[in-house]
Design a protein that fits this description.
heterodimer; A: alpha/beta; 2-enoyl-CoA Hydratase, Chain A, domain 1; 3 domains; eight-stranded mixed β-sheet; 20 helices; elongated; B: mainly beta; OB fold (Dihydrolipoamide Acetyltransferase, E2P); four-stranded antiparallel β-sheet; about 55% strand
Chain lengths: ~525, ~70
């Protein structure tokens, strides 16, 4: 007697497990321009590296002889794999089975994903398409979960504190999967196929009387502008590319340093166009992204959250191969002023860098907090103070380049804990920009003048001269006043200097990171 | 590869320097918007030709409006 019958049955179950929802369900899924979860996993991983966990989980029906007649696999596929040769945990709902709404085995596997990431200290990649629980279509009534079970989101929080978590919305994502989608360090949604909703159109119409399509309710047009997800991708393959790119800047966990890559871009490269990139005319904006791209390693800039908090630009990038976080103001949007959503975006980005020990480089052109009634209604001062305090308590090395304005309380957030500060000749700094400050401080003098406008301009020019960076350099209020073309060489030397500090930072952050 | 240029914010098209069919080079100024008393220039993100132009001087534009396509 051997175990051949049982082994045959294992093989049969394995064969059935990968059939997912069956040919018809898969064809319908493909017709909507979507990949199945197994195709998604193959697309995000290096070829042939998927190492599945719990393939046999599901519901089996057997005949009186014990032969399997039907097998419905768990509708969450989970396992290990590699991205750029580094091991990760990967998982996603199988929409071809019950529309991704968790089966018992599916739910068990899905919540195990975070446990695996924490236990093995590995990055977690979640590829979401599915809804939360549904009201009773299950064949068997199951026991409700025990009152003493660990909170479901504890492991989600622990995963975020341990290893990079990157997630994608690739179809409709609602309920529990939506909450897990955003409980990540980086999230991306496919423009063509994804929506993210707390509850879908039918539930919303019944409860609220709002009649909306899935895209109107939770498409990329909504969620890339409110910060629910960081980025949009044109389609599923681009979403996978973005996840792979994001992870390339990060260590596998908080106990390791980020991978330094070989840099072919000379560290002493002086970019000529930086000499004239800041217009002498103070009302004229310029392209901050061009500055960032000119200074960082060529082709290394990966922007996150471009659609919201748009006055603040956040990127991962490399300096001489060392991954860093880059934060710049965008003078094209509200003159780069700190808004409530910009402050939230900055706070979240700083925490990402702190948790994974990435040095931060800041290109500062901060005119101050956004002013006006909308800004007050949005509680900008509270969100802005949050960013300023977050910055002050970080431990990662920080360098700031004052490219133009640096004013008010909002500027404080741009200088981190103990920044290495470089100033361009175009730098101006003070409690507030002269244009606003003069009108307030000299209002009597201006009103009394024969030509108030001329008086105001005269005062503005006089005070603007006082905001020049030369006295700051003389007072060692900045480390160096530099030729803008020296920015890359100077920052490359700084990044080399801080290398010995990085290992001492390793380990969990002193705070628990939140989504 | 075609690059779409969208307006980052609402504003007014103050100066437009190119027309459809013009050859442009990476970094060349294409148009200037006026936004809250600031002049906001937009540059070509790459070398190419202005394939499609959707703005004219004096236009009031909204955030995310397509300004032009460089291809």
């Amino acid at each position: 007697m051997s175990w051949k019958d049982e082994v045959d049955q294992i093989a049969e179950r394995r064969r059935l497990a990968v059939l997912q929802g069956g040919e018809a369900a898969i064809a319908k899924h493909h017709d909507k321009g979507k990949l199945t979860v197994r195709e998604r996993i193959d697309a995000v991983l290096d070829p042939d590296t998927f190492d599945e966990i719990g393939r046999g989980a599901g519901e089996a029906e057997v005949d009186e002889n014990g032969n399997i007649v039907e097998f419905s696999p768990a509708n969450f596929v989970l396992g290990f794999g590699k991205i750029d040769g580094r091991r990760v945990v990967v998982g996603g709902e199988d929409f071809t089975l019950k529309g991704g709404s968790p089966t018992e085995a599916g739910l068990r596997k899905s919540v195990y994903a975070e446990d695996l990431a924490v236990k093995y200290r590995l990055p977690l990649v979640r590829l979401h398409e599915g809804a939360g629980g549904s009201v009773g279509k299950s064949k068997h009534a199951s026991l409700p979960s025990a009152v003493f079970n660990a909170p479901r989101f504890r492991s989600v929080a622990q995963a975020m504190a341990t290893a990079p978590v990157a997630s994608a919305a690739l179809g409709a994502v609602a309920g529990l999967p939506a909450a897990r989608l955003v409980s990540s360090h980086f999230s991306v949604m496919s423009n063509s196929t994804a929506q993210i909703m707390i509850a879908g159109p039918a539930v919303v119409e019944r409860a609220m009387g709002e009649k909306l399509t899935k895209d109107e309710l939770g498409g990329a047009g909504v969620h890339t502008k409110n910060g629910t997800v960081d980025n949009a991708a044109a389609d599923e393959p681009e979403a996978m590319e973005q996840i792979r790119a994001f992870l390339s800047y990060l260590p596998s966990n908080v106990y390791e340093l980020a991978p330094v890559s070989l840099c072919n871009d000379p560290v002493d490269r002086r970019e000529e166009r930086l000499l004239e990139i800041i217009p002498k005319e103070r009302r004229r904006a310029y392209d901050m992204r061009r500055i960032i791209k000119s200074v960082m390693d060529e082709g290394s800039v990966f922007e996150m959250g471009r659609g919201y908090g748009k006055s603040q630009i956040m990127c991962l990038a490399r300096m001489n191969g060392q991954p860093v976080g880059v934060w710049g103001n965008d003078p094209k949007v509200l003159a780069g002023a700190m808004t409530a959503d910009g402050a939230n975006k900055a706070r979240r980005f700083m925490e990402l860098c702190e948790v994974f020990h990435l040095p931060i480089i800041c290109f500062v052109d901060e005119p101050g907090f956004m002013i006006g009634s909308q800004s007050e209604r949005e509680a900008t001062i509270r969100h802005g103070a949050n960013a300023a305090l977050t910055s002050a308590l970080l431990n990662v090395p920080w360098a700031s380049v004052m490219v133009r304005k640096s004013f008010g309380v909002a500027q404080v957030a741009h200088y981190g804990p103990d920044a290495y500060v470089l100033a361009w000749p175009s730098a101006e700094t003070g409690p507030l920009p002269v244009e606003g400050g003069v009108a307030v401080a000299f209002h009597r003098e201006i009103a009394a003048a024969e030509d108030p406008d001329a008086k105001r301009r005269e005062l503005e020019e006089m005070l603007a001269a006082r905001q020049s960076p030369f006295p700051r350099a003389e007072a060692l209020a900045v480390h160096e006043l530099i030729d803008p073309r020296e920015t890359r060489p100077m920052l490359a030397r700084w990044i080399d200097r801080v290398q010995p500090l990085l290992p001492s930072l390793l380990g969990p952050a002193s705070f628990a990171i939140r989504p | 590869m075609a690059e779409d240029i969208h307006c980052e914010t609402a504003g007014t098209i103050w100066k437009l320097w190119v027309k459809e069919g013009d050859t442009v080079t990476d970094g060349q100024e294409l148009f200037i918007m006026e936004v809250m008393k600031m002049e906001v220039p937009y540059e070509a993100p790459c070398d190419g030709v202005v394939k499609r132009l959707s703005i004219a001087e004096g236009d009031v534009v909204k955030e995310d409006d397509l300004a032009m396509v460089i291809g």
